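Forgive a beginner's question, but would it be possible to get any protein sequence you like and the C-alpha cells describing how it folds?
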Amino acid sequence: MNKTAFAALLCLFIAIPAYAGDMYAGIKLGRSRHSIPAVTNSPKAIGFIGGYRLDPAFTIEAGYIDLGNFGGNKATSVDISALFFYPGNDPFSMYAKISYAGTKWHVPGQTEQNSSFTHGLGFRYIYSPSTIFRLSWDRYMIGNPDVVNVDVYYFAGLYSF
C-alpha cells in the first residue's frame, strides 16, 4: 500500500504541470516518541511530503513517514492532510494540521493496520519563494493495543516548483 500511495503521489506531481507554481515536495526528518511500556528508545523518523497550496492560508498535502523501530517492531504511515496557516502570507507563521492516516504496525510474524484521524501543530518559515522550512509535531494513532499513539517531532525542508 505504501508503494502504491507513493507512486500515486509521484504521478500527481508529474501529471499536473499547469499548477506547478503552487505545488511543493519535501523531506522530513525527526524523532518518534511512543507509549510502549518497557521500551525506552526514541527512533528516527523520516518521511516524504508533497502538496498543493490552494490559498496562502490553506494547503492540502499527502505524505509517507517511517515512524521507526520500537523494540523490534516497525511503524509506517501514509496520510492526506489539510493545513491551516496563520498568518498566511508572513514569512513566519504557525499552522494546525488535520490528517487522515493509514498506519501499519509490523510485529514479527504479523502486521496490524489502522486508519484514523490525526493532528499536528507547527511553525513555517518561507526562506524564499521556492524554499520553505517547517518545525512540527504530529500525532499518529497506531492500531496495536499496546500503543495508543506515536508523536513525531520533525524538521522539514520543502521545495516549491
